[in-house]
Structures are given as structure tokens and as C-alpha cells.
Amino acid sequence: VQLQASGGGLVQAGGSLRLSCAASGRSFSSYSMGWFRQAPGKDREFVAAIKWSGGSTAYAASVKGRFTISRDNAENTVYLQMNSLKPEDTAVYYCAADPRYKSESSYEYWGRGTQVTVSN
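Predicted structure:
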């Protein structure tokens, strides 16, 4: 599975962005997907996950209620809608795929990240 994240950029605090992650290769619909982020000087952290069916989702406490993960299996794409952005959301965001639905970082496949910068 090859993954390509896009949609990052510079946004003011309180604004919104939607990240996309396009997948190619083996059957996308059989993989659960996750979003992670890494800020400068910090460890990579879990943001959100969605089960292969789209029937279950999970969020980090820091983003719950502001971010929404979704997927379109027909388009082989997973999305992360980010609302009410805060400066502490600034990070490189990565999408990942794994046969198992989980919130830990041991995903099998990773894409290149996309930078999100939230200014005051």
C-alpha cells in the first residue's frame, strides 16, 4: 500500500483544514487507517483512526470534538477534517494503514507527511 497525504498548510487559529490521504496498491478497503502527527522536538502521537469498514472511529483526547476522520473506499481516500485549530495542532501529519484497527503507532504502512501550521 502506498499512501500520499495532502492538504496541509498555514491557517490562523480557529480555522479549518481538511487533510486527504490517497492510497494505492493492495485493497484499500481491507485496511484500517490512522492519522498521526509529530511536532518539532516531540514524539509522534496518535490523532485518529478509522476501521476498514468505517464503522468505528477513535480520537486522541486533544482533538476529540474538533477533528473528524472519514473514508471513501470507492475513492481509496481517508480524510481528516480539522476544525477550531489551535497553535498546538502545528505538526507534520502522517497517514498510515494497517490490517488491524488500533490507536498505537505500529502501523504497517506510512505515507509522507504534510505540514500543518496554525498561527496565533
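Summary: The radius of gyration is 13 Å.
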